[in-house]
Predict the structure of Endopeptidase.
Amino acid sequence: MDNKGQFDGEYKEVDPENGSQNNSGGPGGPKLWKIFLIALIAGLIGGGVVVGGYSLAQNNQDEKLNSDNSKTKTKTSNVNVKVTSDAESAFKKIKGAVVSVEAYSKDDTSSSIAGLYGQSGDDDSSSGSDSEQASEGSGVIYKKSGNTAYVVTNNHVISGADRVEILMSDGHKLNASVVGHDSVSDLAVLKIDAKYVDQIASFGNSDKISVGETALAIGSPLGSDYATSLTRGIISAKKRTIDMTNSSGVATGQATVIQTDAAINPGNSGGPLINIGGQVIGINSMKLSSSGSSEASVEGMGFAIPSNEVVEIVNQLAENGKVSRPALGISLLNLDYISSSDRKKTLKLPDSVTSGIVVMKVNSDSPLKDAGLKKYDVITGLGDKKVKDIVSLREALYAHKIGDTVKVKYYHEGKEQTADVKLTLEANDSNTSTASNER
């Protein structure tokens, strides 16, 4: 008989001394219990004595942690996370050139100090004295020449001001003088002492922007307390035609602007709209806050004057103090406003002509008079641009200078004709910034 343990349906153990077999009665035999006890002891030592389902060893560890926490104070992490973005880089390239513009106009109703603190001004020293009302906007320094730096802002920010001050991004406040302003484009140029100017802005090409690209607006929303605020959005539309009004609410024409959903608020006027490269692609000028007669709230509809137009205007303002524009000296109307029956009977237009502007009156000083254009002629082209309406005529006309000779396409008595016209008439407030039916 082999002296090794065997399994034949019941547990049998061979006595090592006499080789006899002991029947332990199954798996609860002595040796199995010994193995179980050893394993149990090892488990208790490794995991702690379990009482009521909780480890005593774990309890001791928790008490030690609680004891340690009671002796320490909460601290910030010493891990320094460095975050950089394109918007941050763009902002750094221009932030020193963005300023707050404070315009002051005289108001003889109360003293400035009394008005500031809501007092009646009963003090004899203040009664009858002139106070100043302030309006605030934004601006951007775009040129530095010798000891002079030039700032572009909106005309409506400084219009009617007796005194203008510039608050620099570093806190210095400087007196500014108006070099020139233009109500048609709503742009103005100021000059300041260049002593504290360390950064100037550069202009990008607004014709190269794309709908959907990132746009950043910088300025002083609600005034200089929030100077150099940055907001982020996208270009919503490259060329949007909107109606322009003056401070009295009178329509002054139309403008082609960039639309963006970057937050623009009162005080942002005159500040830059920049691309992700930190270049100025527009000058923020206005936003929509309500829509039509319903007065519905509108969000994310701000507008900026395109940089290509800004550059052209500020160069003329800096050099001449004004903007010289050619004028046609006519009263006109969009063809869209003419009924189909009048187009055939009165204008005698062919059915293929569906857009243009109708000459309603030719002034005595109009350069079109010598070219033979008359009432009810329909202009469809000027220079190398198509004329579809008053807005496109304005763009085509203002692309030229006084003294230029341009080709005008028009229909007379239903027949297409062309004429070379020399632009000799200069636009003024009476024919460029009043009703949009005069050019």
Q: What stands out?
A: The two ends are 128 Å apart (CA to CA). The chain is about 20% helix and 35% strand.
